[in-house]
């Protein structure tokens, strides 16, 4: 497995910086301020900005931290999906932030291996945080060499949302639990001009749903191996899962032109009642308007006959956001410790749940009562089966090609063989 932050990447990016060539990802973000060596200045680099779920809560708790620590100065750098590239460029110049708040996905999977961030297992125990974090979260954030990459913080449930009101108006009285029931419901919904299942077939939401459906006939251990190697043609269960996906697609289960839609398209269709169902992580469920949420239930994705799972499936992950410590951060570790310990306080964690509609990788008894669909997802328990989120196993170089392959899969008329070939092709340079 190779990453964009390998030795060649360090050399080429370093040469560009030495030559005075500005990296496009740095434009307007001010990340080069991350080299502040003052031990009383903490530099944070986070994805929790703008209108991102939990961003307002993050700003509020930072204000509290500043008031409680008047001698400390806190700088915050915000980036969205491009954070990984921005951080890597700053790290090459040794001007990276002290603490990075980002998901374990794509580029970040290899940061610890490549020295872009430091293992944090020692700090976990020194700071007395092991008992605060869910054991499953620690497992997901630990690499194959038993190094804890970052301190887990935000998690997510990823169920299917069902708009009962829209479904009833189309004559669908029960939430579908099988493939046959889903296809029958789709026919009734389309007859009323309503999209059945909306999905961003041209981005990560479609990639996750495709992976979920493929796992109908594949066990968890088989799935982990599958996404590590990209050998989608080796298991009969994979072929059966892809064929189930094709059956659903060709029966009109997915919204029209799904292959070109994005997450924003998906949430708009569901939140306006134009679609009856969506596969949505809890951060999206928190944004469903009240007039839709009051008629919405959450559950698992319907399974075909002969599936290896006993109940409709959902995805869960503890890797949405964590606290990564950079080499710069180790130079002022006492300041970093103050911030991290503050963020794991029970009252701070509870604010992310109640105000930010976030699921947490931290132990808490608080529920997102102000966000009913998020709370419902938190309480699904054993009424659903959980399948594997592929993020930890897909080589970084295959992440974007996998999304391109997903768009191919959602394109009407694409055969199961062609889908499998496209998925395998995504690993060509991995």
From TrEMBL:
It comes from the Bacteria. This is Carbohydrate ABC transporter substrate-binding protein. The keyword Transmembrane helix does not apply. Residues 1-18 form the signal peptide. InterPro entries: Bact_solute-bd_prot1, SBP, TAT_signal. Pfam families: SBP_bac_1 (PF01547). The keyword Signal applies. Keywords: Signal. SUPFAM superfamilies: Periplasmic binding protein-like II. It comes from Streptomyces beijiangensis. Coiled coil: none annotated. PROSITE patterns: PROKAR_LIPOPROTEIN (PS51257), TAT (PS51318).
């Amino acid at each position: 497995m190779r990453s964009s932050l390998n030795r060649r990447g360090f050399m080429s990016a370093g040469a560009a910086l030495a030559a005075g060539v500005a990296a496009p990802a740095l434009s307007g973000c001010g990340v080069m301020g991350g080299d502040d060596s003052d031990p009383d200045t903490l530099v944070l680099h986070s994805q929790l900005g703008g209108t991102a779920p939990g961003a307002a809560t993050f700003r509020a708790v930072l204000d509290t931290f500043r008031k409680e620590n008047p001698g400390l100065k806190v700088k915050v750098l915000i980036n969205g999906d491009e954070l990984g590239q921005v951080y890597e460029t700053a790290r090459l110049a040794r001007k990276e932030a002290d603490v990075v708040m980002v998901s374990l996905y794509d580029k970040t999977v290899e940061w610890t291996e490549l020295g872009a961030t430091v293992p944090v297992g020692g700090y976990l125990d020194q700071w007395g945080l092991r008992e605060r974090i869910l054991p499953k979260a620690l497992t997901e954030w630990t690499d194959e060499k038993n190094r804890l990459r970052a301190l887990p913080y935000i998690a997510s449930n990823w169920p299917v949302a069902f708009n009962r009101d829209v479904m009833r108006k189309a004559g669908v009285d029960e939430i579908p639990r099988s493939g046959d029931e889903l296809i029958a419901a789709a026919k009734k919904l389309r007859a009323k001009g309503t999209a059945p299942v909306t999905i961003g077939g041209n981005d990560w939401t479609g990639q996750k749903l495709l992976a979920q459906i493929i796992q109908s006939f594949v066990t968890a251990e088989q799935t982990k191996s599958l996404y590590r190697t990209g050998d989608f043609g080796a298991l009969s269960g994979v072929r059966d899962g892809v064929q189930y996906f094709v059956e659903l697609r060709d029966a009109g289960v997915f919204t029209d032109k799904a292959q070109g839609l994005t997450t924003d398209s998906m949430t708009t269709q569901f939140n306006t009642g134009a679609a009856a169902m969506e596969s949505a992580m809890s951060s999206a469920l928190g944004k469903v308007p009240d007039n839709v949420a009051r008629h919405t239930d959450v559950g698992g994705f319907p399974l075909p006959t002969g599936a290896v799972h006993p109940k409709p499936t959902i995805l869960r992950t503890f890797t949405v956001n964590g606290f990564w410590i950079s080499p710069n951060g180790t130079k002022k570790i006492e300041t970093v410790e103050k911030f991290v310990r503050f963020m794991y306080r029970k009252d701070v964690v509870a604010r992310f749940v109640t105000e930010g509609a976030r699921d947490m990788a931290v132990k808490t008894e608080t529920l997102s009562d102000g966000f009913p669909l998020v709370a419902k997802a938190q309480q699904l328990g054993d009424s659903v089966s959980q399948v594997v989120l592929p993020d930890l196993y897909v080589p970084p170089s295959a992440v974007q090609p996998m999304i391109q392959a997903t768009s191919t899969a959602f394109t009407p008329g694409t055969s199961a063989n062609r889908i499998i070939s496209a998925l395998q092709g995504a690993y060509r340079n991995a």
